[in-house]
Specification:
By secondary structure, this protein is an alpha+beta fold. Strands 1, 2, 3, 4, 5, 6, 7, 8, 9 and 10 form a 10-stranded mixed beta sheet that branches.
Length: 354
């Protein structure tokens, strides 16, 4: 798998040979096909293996081939089916299958990175920090020409991605074929994966009452920027607690009422910024249910800053990988390519740690 990509590195750096062996163990055809068999609900294997399709798309995502058609032509004899059959299967890949592929690879790479001592110190000792952010696949070149520049035109899909800052890699993804769907509509799927002692860090777009209370109900915690439409009432006055690199930090307790009328006590932290944000905000408000023993207000403010690292991950995907192939007109195919881009990124991160 991915031979054309790894061979370039193996000739110049012996550590890449080790990395290749480990990655080929994780991404071997048998495991890839097994992942497909366990996750696919409608698709099935007839003549074209899922692992073959994965190998072709990996070449495109990593830049070894300029297009799916070029990747097909390079291995036409080995593939054994027509290009039409390739596109038919590619365009029918279920988003659950693409997500399962990312989760499988993340689980395998997690064990490798931890055994090699490649993890970074935890951002919050005693907790498992997870950073949540969204990604919208860019408009496709296969849309009608006059619709390509219109926001109302069909988009190939979007997804929510979970980053583990200790491993420095994506560990989960929640894809959606509807490019115009609200990211909040995917939060129910995210809630189903939340575990006790998780600390979820996210931007204000994910600041909904149901999501905050859902995290709390699962024995987990959140550090999420406040959305202006979230209703709450003050329980205490705001107090100055200190300074961090980006500004002054203040804190107060607030109450949020659920649908049954029960009140929930949370912390509201304000960072008075030295420099306004790109949206010209001079103050950032962060909500959390962490206790002061778990993290003081300054630590929470610093923790929220680390969410920007997932933005860097997406920038790296765009800079080093063909993660958003805008010639793929079908959402399942576009999302499959994006999910594959998350997996080769594990290889880049592993080389960095080695």
């Amino acid at each position: 798998m991915l031979a054309a990509i790894f061979d370039r590195f193996a000739k110049k750096s012996p550590v890449c040979v080790i990395a290749r062996g480990l990655m080929e163990r994780v991404l071997n055809p048998e495991q890839i096909d097994k992942c497909f068999d366990q996750s696919a609900e409608q698709q099935y294997t007839r003549n074209l293996l899922f692992s073959t399709l994965f190998d072709m798309m990996s070449d495109v995502v990593c830049g070894a081939s300029k297009s799916v058609h070029a990747a097909y032509q390079a291995s036409k004899e080995d593939i054994g089916v027509s290009i039409a059959s390739v596109y038919n299967k590619l365009n029918g890949i279920e988003v659950k299958t693409s997500a399962a592929l990312v989760r499988y690879a993340a689980g395998e790479m997690k064990a490798i990175i931890e055994n090699l001592g490649g993890t970074r110190p935890p951002l919050l000792p005693g907790f498992k920090v997870k950073i949540l952010d969204g990604n919208c696949i860019e408009a496709s070149e296969h849309r009608i020409g006059k619709l390509r520049s219109l926001s109302a035109g069909a988009l190939p899909g979007k997804s929510l991605v979970v980053l583990d800052p200790s491993l420095r890699m994506p560990i989960d993804v929640f894809p959606c074929e509807d490019g115009h769907a609200q990211e909040r509509s995917l939060l129910r799927d995210v809630l189903a994966t939340i575990e006790p002692l998780d600390v979820w860090v996210a931007d204000r777009n994910f600041c909904t009452r149901d999501f905050l209370l859902g995290i709390k109900d699962r024995g987990a915690f959140f550090v999420i920027r406040e959305h202006k439409n979230l209703p709450w009432k003050p329980l205490t006055d705001e107090k100055f607690v200190g300074r961090i690199e980006t500004g002054k930090v203040f804190e107060q307790y607030i109450l949020i009422t659920d649908e049954s009328g029960n009140e929930h006590k949370f912390r509201r932290i304000r960072v008075c910024l030295k420099t306004p944000t790109r949206d010209k905000d001079t103050d950032i408000y962060i909500l959390s249910n962490l206790s002061k023993r778990g993290a003081n207000a300054k630590a929470i403010a610093e923790l929220y800053r680390d969410r920007w690292k997932i933005e860097k991950v997406f920038q790296d995907l765009e800079a080093h990988l063909h993660s958003e192939i805008n010639t793929l007109g079908y959402p399942p195919a576009a999302l499959f390519a994006f999910c594959i881009a998350l997996i080769p990124d594990f290889h880049r991160i592993f080389i960095h740690y080695s």
